[in-house]
Known about the structure:
Blueprint: H1 31-44, H2 48-61
Helix pairs in contact: 1-2
Amino acid sequence: MRDKYDFSKMKGKRNPYVKRLKQPVTMRLDQDTVSYFKAMADETGVPYQTLINLYLRDCAVNQRKLAMEWRVADA
Length: 75
């Protein structure tokens, strides 16, 4: 192996996968939710964070919206 390499003439190349890189985020999830995905991870052999990502991606791709209604408690 050479002691010195000359990289000055090399041309840089953009990462073709840059759009597919994941962005780290911090989320606060209920313990029940985390336990559910960890149990599913044990069954499938897929890491629980990957399962959560797959589920959220499926919701985004299919434009699923949560049906919820806020109720005001009587005073």
